[in-house]
Amino acid sequence: MHEKITTSKQIENAAEEFIRNFFSYYRKLPNDKIINEIDNDKIENLRKIGIPIQGRAIDTVVNEMVEDIYQYGNNVNHPRYLGFIPGPASMLSWLGDVMTSAFNRHAGSWVSCPAASCIEQELIGWLCDQAGFTEKSGGLFVSGGSMANLTAMTVARDKILSEETQHLGVAYVSEQTHSSVAKGLRIIGIPDSRIRRIPVDSYFKMDTDHLTCSIQKDIDEGLAPFIVIASAGTTNTGSIDPFEKISSICQRYGMWMHVDGAFGASVLLTKTHKNLLKGIELSDSISWDAHKWLFQTYACGMILVKNRENLMNSFHVQPEYLKDLGAVQDSFNPWEMGIELTRPARGLKLWFTLQVMGSDAIGAAIEHGFQLAEWAEDELKKNKEIEIVSPAQMAIVNFRYSPRNMTEHQKDELNQQISKKMLDSGYAGIFTTEINGKKVLRICAIHPDTTEVDIRNTVRLLNRYFEELVSFQRTE
């Protein structure tokens, strides 16, 4: 029996139909629920599909993917999805992603993809300029912040530690540092017993006095401190560590300073808030995610280093089967600067977005996030039962409903229930986190299409759920 052949014309027709339907879905998204949950029966039906021996009609499969797969889950592109940082994606980025996937260039080397490699290098150079790095700087597009942090920590280990001292290496993070950092440190051979979690101050910034004491103590015990990971916009609170003080400490002890800017480094493109990241130019490396606050589709992260030779020293290889694809003069092969050999041209969709929008428009969209968090805090302060746990900064505000007659445990349960009622309503994505041992509600508002009305109505609906829950408890 002959296998079923799907013609290019059938694929073209299916693609055109999908695009029409997708744009219709996108226009209706603000009126849709935040989360579309899938039941067990639908999951079981998906498991039963299996892999057919003979192919099926392309229209049928496309419809199944749209209706039975993509339909379910969290609508992170929704303007009232205020739960997590990744992240609303621009339709321009989507289009750039479609074009990059369509041509399917292997972007591991300059020779195999010279124009795309040129664009990525120029864009990395421009991003380095925004960070205040010098002409020796460079970097690479990677899948995201986790890979960027892992890459930077590998380079730091190779630069600061010798093979004989790697087993003594110690890394320093704050209590608010992203979980990907500890994961990456373990991957490069730094166990939990040599990861120091430095306390934060009342503004959730790394306490540099504790940092200095911890480093000196480890030196006195014969260990080898090699890296401090600072944060430019922590996930929980949006706090920014004191870069200038941390840099001074790193220089004093001969250590590497990395800044996890996966979320907050995008503020470098703003006009009104760029000063918040003063001192980031003193770091040795920066991780930065475009699929967070630069509104790109997954997966688009960047690792920037002050001296690109450090990347080459850690990752340069040239086996015999790749010699024909070696770098030409004045160019760099991406596979010699990072972990991946085969990689897509991830930077092209960001370049495309910037070309169409311009950097000023991107910066204004980022600034809008600051304004959204300020509107949220203003509305929250109207309710005396609300405690602002972490004030608005970097588009994030943390708060909790805190009636005086409740225990801390009861307050935790109350705020968890309020979040659940909001999520069940489908109106807005408000999730919980924990800060200083308290269960709190968190608003992270980075969507450029979110309005003041969206924000204030969300807070008012939270207030209503609070009153309903408290009233119900009183009648029990």
TrEMBL record:
Gene3D superfamilies: 3.90.1150.170, Aspartate Aminotransferase, domain 1, Type I PLP-dependent aspartate aminotransferase-like (Major domain). This is PLP-dependent enzyme, glutamate decarboxylase. Transmembrane segments: none annotated. PANTHER family: GROUP II PYRIDOXAL-5-PHOSPHATE DECARBOXYLASE, MIP05841P. The modification N6-(pyridoxal phosphate)lysine is found at K292. It comes from Desulfitobacterium dehalogenans (strain ATCC 51507 / DSM 9161 / JW/IU-DC1). It holds the Pfam family Pyridoxal_deC. GO terms for biological process: amino acid metabolic process; carboxylic acid metabolic process. Belongs to the group II decarboxylase family. Keywords: Decarboxylase, Lyase, Pyridoxal phosphate.
